[in-house]
TrEMBL record:
Its main location: cytoplasm. Gene3D superfamilies: 2-enoyl-CoA Hydratase, Chain A, domain 1. One of its GO terms (molecular function) is carboxyl- or carbamoyltransferase activity. Component of the acetyl coenzyme A carboxylase (ACC) complex. Biotin carboxylase (BC) catalyzes the carboxylation of biotin on its carrier protein (BCCP) and then the CO(2) group is transferred by the transcarboxylase to acetyl-CoA to form malonyl-CoA. InterPro entries: AcCoA_carboxyl_beta, Acetyl_CoA_COase_a_su, Acetyl_CoA_COase_Trfase_b_su, ClpP/crotonase-like_dom_sf, COA_CT_C, COA_CT_N. It comes from Desulfonatronospira thiodismutans ASO3-1. It catalyses: N(6)-carboxybiotinyl-L-lysyl-[protein] + acetyl-CoA = N(6)-biotinyl-L-lysyl-[protein] + malonyl-CoA. In the N-terminal section; belongs to the AccD/PCCB family. In the C-terminal section; belongs to the AccA family. Acetyl-CoA carboxylase is a heterotetramer composed of biotin carboxyl carrier protein (AccB), biotin carboxylase (AccC) and two subunits of ACCase subunit beta/alpha. This is Acetyl-coenzyme A carboxylase carboxyl transferase subunits beta/alpha.
Length: 746
């Protein structure tokens, strides 16, 4: 191919790229480019060498001029098409052009446990004065691969995220920073172990406490797939990228209630893309990214080498800033970086133990302050002052009781236990001949039976009187009709009369044990001690921060129907005398979807449990996931709530999660799925995505009972299945047998 043919081919590719971005929209600038290029090719045989060269130069200049002009006409959906285009810059391009040397680990090309997730040990060489420094870094990111089919379009499977987590821990052990590159439309929705939701939850939980600087560069940030490697100290977003809780097409399908065989209209997709505020500028204004890296007009492509130089400078600068922000000796270098914008200084990227503690606290504070504008707090000034005083009082009391005096008390107690153990060992040696006679004494036998019963979680058996504490009867029990159990064909279940089913049987089939859905009030009145519930954070109200069409009306309707201001109810209550903090997601309020208000209430509940040294229970009556109409405000509740959970657990708390009915998507893939103790009511459904989403994403129909609780148990996603009639007893046993000395009653 001659040089002229190469230039013509390049112009053709540029024109095709522009047409792909703008879709079927008529545009005079694109029409002009098309006609000029066609005229040149048509007249090419009659032109001399000099004329060809001049016209090619003129055409190239025209393309550059009109590309700059078209840049100003881009819509949010155009930017989505840019990041999805096969010519879009990808992680392999970045590794080749930003880093001086790298070694791909955890697989190469298609020979990898998940080719859509790339891990590389890379180096950045810096020349400062006469010295040369080689600074290592762990690079982790999704790879779309310019159309390579085995990359799965950057949609990472659970084992790909597990691979990323493994090498995050390697970077932490080696004390080197992590650079993550987010190029994903979303995670691959599969429940096979380790499971999409559970693995994302593990990743987010681990990143909340990773003790090295983490920098993220976002190009395409789709939902939980982005959050799997997105909880970072600094977020740099490419100017043509997008970051959203859901794709515009997915939002349009939900808003338009499109069937799986009929796509939403292009106008609705464009509208959703605009209303979700997914662009880099939108996310910067909302405070969800730290800076924007400007790309060439119409997006960065592999031959834009100036872009790679700018990206290299930005990731170095961001890493330097994070390290200096947590280091003691930093004054003049910090000024050089921030004020003078001078990167030609050396900052050692390995950090000390004290700096690591400051890094974790800085990360928590950063995310804790996000989304404060995205919900409404109807508390009066008096209520806010009262709450602040109580929080301060409990913090002081907690420090004195559990830290100052408690530390010495525990030391004395442990010493006494050791001495007592030695005495018992000595006495056993002296009296072992009489021990068999001693154990036959009736009061000793009774104590042993009680101890055995305490360590065994109860299960319901026929004949047990579960309803001794029943104080609430479902309104469904007032219906004079019969219901057929879904398992009737398999187990030959008899039809059930509603008053019996929802009254005496607590919504449980008397033959096969299938659990029919029950109202959340049933649990409020029948699980917790009578008159022990004390709600807090009630004035926090769900709102419509993005002014999404129709959401305000839907929220008002939900508030009127339920009497609650959000889908999360937080309260303190007692279970057989043990005080617990509870966050309950209510399925009746917009499907239990989580937005900024729900996330804030959950975080405050976790903080209250930590201050008061109480167990923390998350009861999920049902959740459909993140509230998509809140956009990134909803998505960020995944890392925000997970950070609060990690802080609570690291202080020594006991975090229990109980799933009922249907629990899907973001909450399960973050602050619920990271609990070490997760249980489900029988017949509950738990997963990352529903059957429709899985079918649309993978093209496959899921097997029967794919999301049932017993499947989740067999995959290791939950730790047990409970009968509704025994949930009170099981929770009490869990409170007595799980958790450590942090809890107030220990």
């Amino acid at each position: 191919m001659t040089d002229i043919e190469k230039q013509i081919q390049d112009l053709r590719e540029r024109l095709q790229y522009i047409e792909d971005i703008f879709g079927n929209r008529e545009n005079t600038n694109i029409t002009l480019l098309r006609s000029k290029l066609q005229d040149f090719i048509h007249n090419l045989p009659s032109l001399g060498p000099g004329q060809i060269k001049r016209q090619l130069t003129s055409l190239s200049d025209l393309f550059s001029f009109l590309e700059n002009k078209l840049e100003k006409e881009l819509t949010p959906m155009d930017r989505v098409r840019i990041v999805r285009h096969p010519q879009r810059v990808c992680l392999k391009d970045i590794l080749e052009n930003v880093y001086d040397n790298y070694t791909e680990i955890g697989g190469q090309g298609e020979y990898s446990i998940d080719p859509s997730m790339i891990i590389a040990r890379a180096y950045i060489t810096r020349n400062v004065g006469k010295k040369t420094y080689k600074q290592p870094v762990m690079v982790i990111g999704q790879e779309k691969g310019h159309g390579e089919e085995f990359r799965n379009g950057g949609s990472v499977k659970p084992w790909g995220n597990a691979k990323a987590l493994e090498y995050m821990k390697v970077a932490e052990r080696e004390n080197i920073p992590i650079h993550t590159y987010i190029f994903t439309p979303g995670s691959y929705p599969i429940e096979d172990y380790p499971g999409a939701a559970q693995q994302i939850a593990r990743n987010i939980y681990a990143m909340a406490g990773i003790r090295v600087p983490v920098i993220a560069v976002l190009s395409e940030g789709g939902s939980g797939g982005a959050e799997a490697i997105g909880l970072t100290d600094t977020r740099i977003m490419l100017s043509h990228g997008y970051y959203s809780v859901i794709s515009p097409e997915g939002a349009a399908a939900i808003e338009g209630r499109s069937s799986s065989t009929r796509k939403a209209s292009a106008q609705l997709v464009e509208s959703c893309a605009r209303q979700l505020r997914i662009t880099a500028r939108d996310n910067l204004e909302m405070g969800y990214v730290d800076r924007i890296l400007q790309e060439p007009p119409l997006g960065a492509r592999p031959d834009h080498f100036d872009f790679f130089r700018k990206l290299r400078r930005e990731v170095i600068l961001a890493t330097d800033e994070i390290v200096l922000s947590i280091r003691g000796v930093k004054l003049f270098r910090a000024i050089a970086l921030r004020k003078l914008n001078n990167p030609n200084i050396y900052v050692r990227w390995s950090i000390s133990s004290k700096s690591k503690e400051r890094l974790i606290w800085r990360r928590y504070q950063k995310y804790r302050g996000l989304c404060s504008w995205a919900y409404q707090d109807r508390s009066t000034n008096f209520q806010k002052c009262k709450s602040a005083v109580l929080e301060t009082g409990w913090s002081v009391y907690s420090f004195l009781r559990y830290e100052f005096f408690g530390r010495h008390q525990r030391a004395i107690t442990h010493l006494a236990e050791d001495v007592q153990g030695e005495v018992h060992a000595l006495m056993d040696r002296v009296t072992h001949r009489f021990s068999s006679l001693f154990k036959k004494l009736p009061w000793v036998r009774k104590e042993r039976e009680d101890a055995c019963q305490l360590t065994t979680l109860s299960t319901w058996e026929a004949g047990m009187s579960w309803n001794e504490h029943c104080r609430y009867v479902s309104p469904q029990a007032n219906q004079d009709k019969t219901l057929t159990c879904p398992n009737s064909e398999k187990h030959n279940c008899l039809d059930l009369w509603a008053p019996d089913l929802f009254g005496d049987f607590a919504g449980v089939c008397s033959h096969c044990g299938h659990h029919f859905p029950m109202e959340y009030e049933w649990y409020l009145f029948n699980v917790f001690d009578s008159r022990s519930i004390r709600e807090f954070n009630a004035p926090i109200e769900a709102s419509n921060p993005l002014e999404f069409d129709g959401l305000t009306h839907k929220l008002d309707k939900a508030k009127k129907q339920t009497g609650h201001k959000s889908a999360c109810m937080t309260f303190e209550a007692k279970i057989k005398g043990i005080q617990v903090a509870v966050a309950m997601l209510l399925a009746r309020f917009r499907g239990g979807s989580v937005g900024a208000a729900e996330g804030e209430k959950f975080i405050r509940a976790a903080e209250q449990a930590r201050r008061k040294h109480m167990p923390f229970l998350a009861y999920v009556h049902g959740t459909a996931g993140i509230r998509i109409q809140e956009g990134t405000n909803g998505l960020l509740q995944m890392p925000r709530c997970t950070l609060a959970v990690r802080r609570y657990l690291e202080s020594g708390g006991l975090y229990l999660v109980v799933y009922d009915t249907n629990s899907y998507a973001g909450p399960v893939a973050s602050f619920l799925g990271c609990s070490p103790y997760q249980f489900a009511i029988r017949s509950a459904n738990i997963g990352f995505a529903g059957p429709g989403v899985i079918r649309e994403t993978t093209g496959m129909d899921i097997p029967p009972n794919y999301h049932k609780s017993f499947q989740a148990l067999s995959r290791g996603h939950i730790q047990g299945i409970w009968d509704r009639r025994e949930i009170r007893n099981n929770l009490h046993h869990a409170l007595m047998t799980m958790g450590g000395e942090f809890l107030y009653y220990r």
